[in-house]
Amino acid sequence: MKCTNPQVYKANRSNRKTETVNFGDVRYFSVKVPKQKSDPRNRISLELVGFEGPKEFPRLFGSVTMHLYDVIQKQSFTEICAMRIRNMVFCTAEVEFMFCYGCLGYGYSHQLKLPGADPAQSVAYSMFLRVPPPENRKDAVTNVIKPQRMDYPACLSPDLNVTVGNIELEPPAEMTDHYISLQNALKEPPRERLQKMKKEYRSLSTWREKAEYLDQLILKRGPKTRPTQPKVFFLLKGRQIRCS
């Protein structure tokens, strides 16, 4: 609830002309639009109150109720509201309503469908600073930033088929024999042994097992096995003989 600034009104009984009290105040409300039209939060209430002195209790002169959906559909309009108290019209109030959906320029403002409303105009006003795009990526027609090509991540394997980046790199300016031979080798189907190693590597559950598997491939080591009891006995015996 918000109140306008109080205005002084002195009734002149001798003058029968219509007197006008100008408030001229603007009040902003941040609201969340409910999905159900019957939601009581969609009700907008305007009340006209008055009091004779600062210590007097305010007295209700009239009120009017509007629906939030009607304001959203019209978006910006001026309404002459009849301020009623019970069944009697006390006065009329000229109120200007304005609704801005997503005034920050972000969110769901592009999803709102209004008759005759342009989404570009709805999001043109923004409280955030609009930084101009750099000159090397600036579109000369629309004055927006151009999309930039994203390379395939170097940390991912090409056979993962991820949707991030483009795996096809631009060819160099000079096509050397080494580059051509490398490209031809990459286009050839992988060997069956490579597919078998990939399958074995991905079947391992822990990182320690994967590290041991890579050590076996790179260093050409056999699997780590614990020595049997007779072998341990002969090793200890040989050490004792050497020590003696």
UniProtKB/TrEMBL annotation:
<dbReference type="InterPro" id="IPR048363">
    <property type="entry name" value="CTSRT_C2"/>
</dbReference>
<feature type="domain" description="Cation channel sperm-associated targeting subunit tau C2">
    <location>
        <begin position="2"/>
        <end position="102"/>
    </location>
</feature>
<dbReference type="Pfam" id="PF15729">
    <property type="entry name" value="CTSRT"/>
</dbReference>
<dbReference type="InterPro" id="IPR031462">
    <property type="entry name" value="CTSRT"/>
</dbReference>
<protein>
    <recommendedName>
        <fullName>Cation channel sperm-associated targeting subunit tau C2 domain-containing protein</fullName>
    </recommendedName>
</protein>
